[in-house]
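Q: Could you write out the predicted structure for this multi-component system? I'm mainly interested in how the pieces pack against one another.
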Amino acid sequence: MIQFSRFVLPNGLRVLVHEDNSTPMAVVNVLYDVGARDEDPSRTGFAHLFEHLMFGGSINIAEYDDELQKAGGENNAYTTNDLTNYYCQLPSANIETAFWLESDRMLSLAFSKKSLEVQRKVVSEEFKEHYINKPYGDVWFRMREMAYEEHPYKWMTIGKELKHIEQATLEDVKQFFFRHYTPSNAILVVAGNVVTAEVLALAEKWFGDIEPGEKYIRQVPQEQEQSAPRRMDITADVPVDAFLKTWHMPSRLDERYYAVDLITDILGSGASSRLYQSLVKEQHLFTNIDCYHFGSTDPGLLCIDGKLVKGVTPEQAEAAVEELLEKLKRDGVTTTELEKVKNKTESTMAFEDMSVMNRAASIAYYELLGDADLMNTELDKYNAVTAGEVLEECRRIFDENNSHTLYYRAK
Amino acid sequence: MINRKKAPAYKDAVEFDLKLKPYEKYVLRNGVEVYAINAGAEELIQVEWVFRAGNWYEKQNLVAPATNFLLKNGTSNRTAFEVNEHFDYYGAALSRACYNETSTINLHSLTKHLSKLLPVVRELITDAVIPESELHLYKQNNRQRLEVNLKKNDFVANRLIDEYLFGFDHPYGRYSRAEDIDALDRNTLISFYDEYYRNGRCVMFVAGKLPSNLNEMLEEHFGDLPLHGNETMPVIHHVMPATEKKYRVTNDPNGVQGAIRIGRHFPNRHHPDFFGVQVLNTVFGGFFGARLMNNIREDKGYTYGIYSYLQNHIQQSAWMVSTEAGRDVSEATISEVYSEMDILRNELIDEEELMLVRNYLMGSILGDLDGPFHIIGRWKNIILNDLDENFFYNSINTIKTISAAEMQALANKYLNPADFYELVVV
């Protein structure tokens, strides 16, 4: 059970405080309700580029990092298709430094030309490092484009193409900032060795006078139900064939989510999972195979992803995967299997909650989903999933008409 | 109105009095030492068995990592699947890893399940059978994985720079090749297992919210095993560095980035310069606010990231600069790295920057002492390197007190471009 207090400042900023006196540190986590799904299709990669620019100086403070480091702090940030999260950790005695820094960049950035020029290059190198200079680096660009026709999940957080990043202008940056980086689109979580009343006073002092801005109303085109299978067969300069298949799955907020999450564990998490045991260990078709999903806020994708043993064709690999899924849809899962993945969920959650930083991020994330208290009922929701519900979800999701198959063949 | 131009008052982290929570130590009746940190609010535990069974001890390339990997792939009572199923059922994670000197089995679990898990770990240490079929799969999968990795410039660069520094015949310089994977055979693995695990030298590290009967449990399951440290003759390996220092290697003709590694030898943690160099390294390239990052990423935009670090070896280390930079700016990146070395040799670090680095390091250590798993990690490092708590306190003291002049002297001793091996893999 994770305790916290929740306040809303008059400008709309949500403030959540979690006290934990066993640590000498404090964590300040600011989540902005903006991700790659909020981008214009002709300017993709912008939310992530923007995350970089948030470190390029704010209206009153030239160097975010230097100031934080002087106070003994460390920080980082990440952007997903759904959200952008900034977090820093510092000795709790110095917590006001984090308030000063975070509130100033919520107030306004410096909009430095040099910062934009440099970060465009940095992000281009990031793009190259992770997606161009790596074998199979483009797999997810292709899969997303195949799986989504309407929804902006069809592009990666890094952006659809390098060109979009290279063309970003200072005017785009300003617009983006004032549309999304407002108190009403943000959630501030302070956790660690802190006193709630003091945090609230600091929040009012530093964030209270920031203009509320306009509440951003998200209008994301939703995906139509898919009625036929989609397939792609490509050949690239890679040493071995790869196989990736995905199916649409319910959103993070859907009650069905918990059963589906457990399905991915049963199929593909750990060395005793079904896919690994059958296709790697017994049938020798794959050298590795995983099943996972991204937990996206809008309906996402359930994925089965593996590399083939040389000599095995993607057709054979797919047939074996399908056979395994057919059996699952016919016979369902055993009680022991279901207990196993529930135990694993309990354990994973407990380990994640060990770190104050993770707890702060979770509180912010669940608050974004609608209510931070949801995090305290998650385990019950997993434990309530029945074998019957798992079977029903398997039958619903593993439907060929709901699928996208990618053969990635070695030249 | 608040003055947003002015930073709020803060406490210099150097004023913090950092303490490393002492461990409790038990010695099992067979002589195995157990180091324990009992802390934390959650009912979680980590148990780690560290064996002197790293590749330092193998006589044939890859025998140590293959044995380590296959430890959990079957005993005389359980198939690989049954072993995995057992740990997975209790939501536990059993991982293993092989390093240069040591190799480990590491168990993470909810404390309540520990008694169900320890007997099976005992089986892995006493009764692994390494089935032929499992070895066959291991070889096949690793050959393919190697083939994929060899397409990655960073992977190739990491291998080559180690080879240049230490020589292929040294455990720090050796890497996997397809022919080494092919040559692995079950008998060699079994005899390595017998010597370095079943009758090996083991030390244990436990952390978390520890059950009151932990000592008895460990005694029961591990106290009777011959793990007291089969004190075999120490194995000596000689470093054989390459004579040539500069390399340009083409790996991917269409590559868009070069993997750059610039490295020199450096003594181990027992050397008196180690503490000062840790601070100097932080200024140079050890964190996001370091000079290399400020210059090459934040000013020039040549790379997504650039870092320098000391390699984590026990016997002998290396000081390394590592980055992936745009293909057409790789050479410019290298000259910037050398020019940062020049500046450190020729100019004193100003007080403001030095204070920032002191505070950053202190804050970072403070944050890293948070929780039992981090604390035991620090102790493990100290114990396996044959050091004591003075290592921690000397390190803190150096961070607080080292002068700019001392750091310049260290830069003059260690940051001479002529001493560095240099490699770009495109």
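A: Regarding packing and overall arrangement: The longest helix of chain B spans residues 132-149.
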